Amino acid sequence: MQICSVCSEQTPKYKCPSCRIRYCSLCCYKRHKDTCVPVEQPAPPHHEAERTSNTEQWTVEDLLHEGDVVDKVPLQRLQLLGQSKELRDLLCNPHLRRLLRSVDAADNKSDAMKAAMQEPLFAEFSDQCLRVVDDKAERSPFSEAADS
What we know:
The protein is mainly α. The protein has helices at residues 26-33, 46-53, 60-64, 75-79, 85-91, 94-105, 109-116, 120-133, 141-147, and strands spanning 14-15, 22-23.
């Protein structure tokens, strides 16, 4: 069984997209993001490069079958994102919408995410997304520390 690379106490549910360490909560993510050292990604094989350069949209199935199961957020939790008043309020900000569109349109999504995370508004948005989908955040002592 794996344990969180930040607190060494809980089972990790998430993986940092930059350095690939595993963490368990929003609090651990916040502690980690200040010291994150990105790992260089190897160049994709030729057939993957063709697929990513194609203008086809990714399907839900494409996304659901990637990576480790431990990093998956259940569909029911993802649907809560659409019901969050806090997220809707944040999305009223035109600057945040521009940032989200620029990440979505970027050729290199990883670099675009790293740049966007430097914007406090985008970091607030991503933190709120984690709060909504992290089922332990509501009843965990980490959630109180994350809000301070």
